[in-house]
Amino acid sequence: MSGTGTDAAAPNRRREMLVVLGLAVLAAALLLFATGRTWLTVRVTAPGLPAVVQEGTGRTLAPGSFAFALAGLAGSLGVLATRRVLRVVVAVIVAVCGAGGAVTAWLGASATGDLLGPTERVLGSVLHVQHTAWPWVAVGAGAVLAVCGVLAAARGRYWPGMGAKYDAPRPASRREGEPDMWRALDRGDDPTA
């Protein structure tokens, strides 16, 4: 009867796994997308020269977020393909990637100095710095990815694994006692007697 309770929990565990890993993949993809968007625009003017407008994307202001997003995306899919202890290890890596992506996006959100060259800092004056919402989207996506990684690490050992058809092929097992029969024949004994 205890097998019935386990069988009834299987659809719930599968659903939980799909929700958590689906959110993790979406969060990593959103973090990846947000790093490619314009995070801020700086307009610099120098006396006697036209205004210079420079845009900073997440990849230039927070390149770590892009790397964490790629690793988090791969790790989210890796959680699905692993089992037991390895699944927990991969889930912890996903959580670290999410936290790293959120922190680097947070730090990159205020990095206007990276857009200004040394000449523009000395000669020019910044007239206007316009921030977009994309760095905060990246921070949120990184935080969601981190939470999904923590959930996968805590609950992943109870989730179902991929089917056995995805395992490496194993050699066909021999019948028990078969090698002993051949050794008997090699010695000259009749194994049927």
Characterize this entry briefly.
The chain has 193 residues and is mainly alpha-helical. It has seven helices and three strands, in the order H-E-E-H-H-H-H-E-H-H.
Rounded to the nearest angstrom, the radius of gyration is 28 Å
Give the total of beta strands. 3
Proportion of beta-strand residues: 5-15%
Counting H and I runs of at least 4 residues, what is the number of helices?
A: 7
Approximate shape: elongated
Query: Reading side by side through the largest sheet, how are the strands ordered?
Result: 2-1-3
N- to C-terminal separation? Answer: 47 Å
CATH architecture: Up-down Bundle
Number of domains: 1
> What is the CATH topology classification name?
Butyryl-CoA Dehydrogenase, subunit A, domain 3
Task: Write down the CATH class.
Answer: Mainly Alpha
Percent helix range: 55-70%
Spell the H/E element sequence. HEEHHHHEHH
- Mean pLDDT over the full residue set: 81
Largest sheet, in brief, is: 3 strands, antiparallel
**Strand-pairing-aware structural class:** mainly alpha
In the predicted model, the low-confidence regions spanning at least 5 consecutive residues are none
